[in-house]
Amino acid sequence: MNGHIETAFVATVATAPERKTSPGGKAWAAFNVRVGDGDNVQWLRISAFAEAAEIAMGLQKGTSCYIEGNLVLRTWRTEAGEQRAGLNVMANRLEALGQIGRRRQSRAPARTGPKTPSADWQRPLDPPPGRRGCLDETIPF
Question: Residue 60: which CATH number?
Answer without folding.
Answer: 2.40.50.140
